[in-house]
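Case 519 in the screening queue. Each case pairs one protein sequence with one candidate compound; here the compound is adenosine-5'-diphosphate. For every case the pipeline is the same: read the inputs, emit a complex structure as tokens, and attach any notable structural observations.

Predict complex for case 519.
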Amino acid sequence: MKNTFGIDIIPENELQRLEVLKRYKILDTPPEDAFNNIARLATQIFNVPISLISLVDSEEVFFKANVGMGNTKSTSRGISLCSLALLDPEVTVFENAPKEPCLLTNPLVAGEFGLKFYAGAPLITHDGFLIGTMCIVDKITKEFTLKDREILKGLAAIVMDEIELRLSAIGVEQDKEMLRMATDAAKLGTWHLDIKANEFIPSPRLKQLFGYGHDEIMSYEAALNAIPQEYREDVKMAIELTTNNGSKYDIEHPVNDVKNNKLRWIKAIGKLYNSASGEPSHFSGALWDITERKQDENRKNDFIAMVSHELKTPLTSLKGYIQMLQLKANDDVFIVNALSKANNQINKMHKMIQGFLDVSRFEAGKIHIDIQTFQIKELIDEAVDELGTIMHRPNIISHTCEDFLISGDKNKLGQVVNNLLSNAIKYSPKSTTIEITCKQVNDLVQVGIKDEGMGIKASDMEKLFDRFYRVESDNTRSIAGFGVGLYLCSEIIKRHHGKLWVESEYGKGSTFYFTLPLI
Ligand code: ADP
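Case 519 output:
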């Protein structure tokens, strides 16, 4: 580069500055209306024939917008006056250029072009780098007031905003493209449900999963109808919860592909998105085929169900024999004790096997919910009486559970209270208190079972309700269990349209809560 100015035109932070300039991916790109319009506006405001939006690269000055200079796309950095404007964060003005010592040998000024007036405001990035200018040029001398400088600076700020905006738009486009590639690779179907316009747009892959051809129209109703009836209500409710309350959509259900006579299992996750004004605007998400996984799970469940069932028969007869022996062994204290212990062990085993059977039934959707109306207090009193005595825990307090009438499966909900209470007992020292509370929250009753036990780490909390999940630690290793209890509790509560969750501080204690709709 031949420097015609006789002064150093390379700023101190040049290397970093060039890197920042590259970040905007704007060098050597075609003209764009947004920039042309600003340049045109500048010529009108200042009544000049030439206006340029320039970006100063290492050797060249590139014009992103050019009004009045024909097809010129760039010029050498050693000639362009923008190289000088780049050195000062304020506006650089030459009202009478031929009189400026540093422009004496500049070909634009001294040569045929005859430049007489130049004003350039630098384009300053949000992190303070000067990457180019918004400048105006005339072939006659001109006065440029302070007010004019302010206006030119304002235009430069608008140009810079446009450059930043353009970059984020490029980013969004790139993200979209990446997402498209990932979606294709993972064979994900996607949908977009416009809430106001009530418009449903399924992707071709989604249509395929529902048994539709790429160019066939598939309505929202058709999508719902493809879901077998016994799952349809659950799906509708999950969609409602997402679109009305913004809850996360995360569901597994089968889909009937009638055309290919196939039942496909899919997993779908989605979210409610808001418009810029904060109003719910659309419900979108992705879904994929999980048929193979479901088939594996079904095989496993069938196996567990079969084994559990087969184990129950010999266990029942073993229990019978022990009871008979107990009747015959009245006098011998050792035998009576030993048989009572054997009986307890058999009861434990029976409970575990029952747990497995319940899991496989839930998984297969074969659990029947037997609805009746009752006070939640009845369940709590029963569980406290039974467990408090058996497990020698007198310190169980429950005093706020009056008058909450609910409807549900009393046995199964009893199982939930029992499980949560027996966990509270199992996982806390004998001398500590366990408190059971009930309170109304809107149209729900919220039950809390609070212990002062070992507590749960945050990393374990979200997995606690998964099937067969047990916390691995020295404290829990010695406590019997298979990690099915909480899974069953959460399934039972879900079927009653309630919620089960835990709040806990590691080392201090936990509170398990569940809610149920009040009548
Ligand atoms: P388990 O039969 O192993 O008790 P659960 O599903 O009932 O199975 O519980 C899963 C795991 O959650 C337990 O192994 C235990 O680590 C943890 N947990 C449950 N309740 C409590 C509690 N009240 N305090 C601390 N940890 C608990």
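Case 519 observations:
- The first strand starts at residue 50 and ends at 56.
- The radius of gyration is 37 Å.
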